[in-house]
Design a protein that fits this description.
Elements: H1 2-13, E1 15-21, H2 26-38, E2 45-50, H3 56-67, E3 72-76, E4 80-82, E5 85-87, E6 91-97, E7 101-109, H4 115-125, E8 134-142, H5 148-159, E9 165-170, E10 181-183, E11 186-188, E12 191-199, E13 203-208, E14 212-224, E15 227-231, E16 234-235, H6 236-243, H7 248-252, H8 254-261, E17 266-268, E18 276-278, E19 282-284, E20 289-291, E21 301-306, H9 309-325, E22 334-340, H10 341-363, E23 368-373, E24 376-379, E25 386-387, E26 391-396
Parallel strand pairs: 2-3, 8-9, 22-23
Antiparallel strand pairs: 1-6, 2-6, 3-10, 4-5, 4-23, 7-12, 8-12, 9-24, 10-11, 13-26, 14-15, 14-21, 15-16, 15-20, 17-18, 17-21, 19-20, 22-26, 24-25
């Protein structure tokens, strides 16, 4: 009986709402998604994830009007996630409200030129939520700008080990050209948007990828930021293609290589737990190097990674279970999901529908929102917190 009373009190102090729309008319899409998330309530925060297929300026401007005095943050996507299943070309919104939440927001542009400084700057601006019993820092970044691990390192250098991190990198429907970030009615590029969330109830984080290492480990013998030049003293691209017996089109055509690499990331060895995955968004066919979304340092041991439907869905269950377990017995009143676009390539359309249905079971009827990303952020301990081809789940009690 005491547990039931605690849940009711938590719900009275905090609420979470979610909405979605598949409309291509931006004002209508905002009305539906944000309106369903708010349901006439005054929010502390509105989070918006939207496809590049929409007119983002009109969408975000109208969404901010609907949010009223609440800060609005968000980014463009490579697909949207909400209750009822995944989507493409649409909009989802999540709103937080109630006296049980403390919210602080900020943003920084110029991410590509100084990613570590950007991470440090946004973390410093959000220190006010650290006094809440439970707190975290959510980062939404331009995944095509700069070394994403450096953003995490910068945030960690200021926030310290006591501030968990979650978030994801904006997408552009897999065009790999440019992504956008949203902050209080403004649409930006080359930016990191940050939200400090403080709560008087637990916040649980789960992070798993489900990829499995194959073959012998390789030594990174030369690399630069966002680039692996040689593996075992051989051109990295050549080693990668040969070990995976890549099809002929992936060896000569950039678009074909991008599609192939979505299903074949690199895994960096860690002292414990799963390998840390690094996405390969492209390659330099002239220098024969691999382009990576974050640093793969010289001296690192890496292995090629593969996955299948069973392993990826097992990781979905594990990430959700870890997030809910972090609520210390409370029931979730909302969930945010950051899921790598590359996992869709393994699961296929039927598989991603199955995956979101599994997430919904763990949400147990609570509002759900999220997006398919170009990289995921999750750190509950240690300095490493940038991931690729991984599922990150934030459960809110």
């Amino acid at each position: 009986m005491a547990a039931d009373t605690s849940i009711k009190m938590s719900n009275a102090l905090r609420w979470v709402g979610a909405g979605r729309s598949d409309s291509q008319e931006p004002e209508s899409a905002a009305e539906r998604a944000v309106g369903d998330a708010l349901q006439g309530r005054a929010a502390k925060l509105v989070v918006l994830f939207a496809s590049e297929a929409l007119d983002l300026e009109r969408l975000v401007t109208h969404a901010q009007r609907l949010a009223g005095d609440a800060p609005l943050v968000g980014c463009s996507t490579a697909g949207e996630i909400a209750g009822g299943g995944p989507g493409d070309g649409g909009v989802v919104a999540l709103a937080l409200g109630g006296d049980g939440f403390v919210i602080a927001t900020t943003h920084v542009t110029g991410l590509a030129a100084a990613p570590r400084e950007a991470g440090a700057e946004v973390a410093a601006a959000l220190s006010e939520v650290a006094g809440a019993p439970h707190h975290l820092l959510m980062l939404l970044t331009d995944g095509l700008a700069g070394d994403q691990q450096e953003i995490v390192r910068g945030a960690y250098s200021v926030a310290g080990a006591g501030m968990p991190l979650v978030g994801g990198c904006a997408g552009d429907d897999l065009h790999m050209a440019a992504t956008h970030q949203f902050f209080n009615g403004e649409v930006m590029q080359d930016a990191v948007v940050a939200v400090g969330i403080g709560s008087d109830a637990p916040l649980g984080i789960g992070v798993r990828h489900g990829w499995e290492a194959v073959g012998e480990p390789m030594l990174v013998t030369a690399s630069r930021p966002n680039r692996v030049d040689t593996l075992d003293d051989q051109p990295a691209l050549d080693v990668y293609l040969e070990r995976l017996n890549a099809p002929s089109e992936a060896r000569t055509d950039r678009e074909a290589f991008i599609r192939f690499a979505l299903e074949h990331p690199l895994g960096m060895a860690r002292r414990a737990g799963e390998e840390q995955v690094r996405w390969i968004p492209s390659a330099d066919f002239d220098s024969r190097s691999l382009v990576t979304s974050a640093e793969v340092p010289p001296g690192a041991l890496v292995r090629l990674m593969v996955g299948d439907t069973a392993s990826v869905l097992a990781a979905t269950d594990a990430a959700c279970a870890d997030a809910v377990a972090g609520l210390d017995g409370d029931q979730p009143i909302g969930m945010l999901v950051f899921d790598c676009a590359a996992r869709r390539a393994v699961l296929g359309e039927d598989g991603i529908a199955t995956e979101i249905a599994r997430v919904e079971r763990y949400a147990a009827g609570a509002p759900l929102a999220g997006f398919y990303t170009y990289g995921e952020i999750a750190r509950t301990r240690g300095v490493a917190g940038f991931h690729n081809q991984t599922l990150v789940v934030l459960a809110i009690a």
